[in-house]
Amino acid sequence: MNTSLRRSLSTLVAACLSVGGLACAASEAKESVYAQAIILDVRTPEEFAAGHLDGAVLVDIKDASFDARIAELDPSLSYVVYCRSGNRSAQAVERMKAAGFGNLSDLGSLENAASQTGIAIVQG
């Protein structure tokens, strides 16, 4: 974790502890970390349309253009990756690591990603 993010999280945790306890600190810290990340849904367009995290970017790992699409992304940013069950997200994270990405979180399934990030699942 970079120094700036660690400092921000420490400040946030201290503020939450003074007003709302540890549960507040954990919840706010989690939301803060994921608020800084770009959320990638690596499922198919049909799966994405049926429900995805609000604000997620679709980059279908089964599409032949996956590696080219990933190459267009900034490898210095943070990314959260999810799919249906965790299989494709794990594959995507490995391919992204091989392409030079360093700050990656594989959250597995859509439901787990929603639970971990606190971001709503939307359709469309």
Could you walk me through the main structural features you see in this protein, from its secondary elements to its overall organization?
- The protein is α/β, with parallel strands linked by helices and 124 residues long.
- It has 2 domains: 1-35, no CATH class; 37-122, Rhodanese-like domain (Oxidized Rhodanese, domain 1).
- It has helices at 3-19, 21-35, 45-50, 66-71, 87-98, 110-117, and strands at residues 38-41, 52-53, 57-58, 78-83, 103-109, 121-122.
- It has a 4-stranded parallel β-sheet with strand order 3-1-4-5, with helices on both faces. Strands 2-6 form a two-stranded antiparallel sheet.
- Strand 4 (78-83), helix 5 and strand 5 form a beta-alpha-beta unit.
- The chain is globular, with a radius of gyration of 15 Å.
- The relative contact order is 0.17.
- Mean pLDDT is 82; it is low at 1-30.
What attributes does this structure have?
124 residues; alpha/beta; Oxidized Rhodanese, domain 1; 4-stranded parallel sheet; two-stranded antiparallel ribbon; 52% helix
Kindly give the count of domains: 2
Main sheet?
4 strands, parallel
Instruction: Provide the residue-averaged pLDDT.
Output: 82
Series of H and E elements = HHEHEEHEHEHE
Looking at the structure, the CATH topology of the largest domain is Oxidized Rhodanese, domain 1
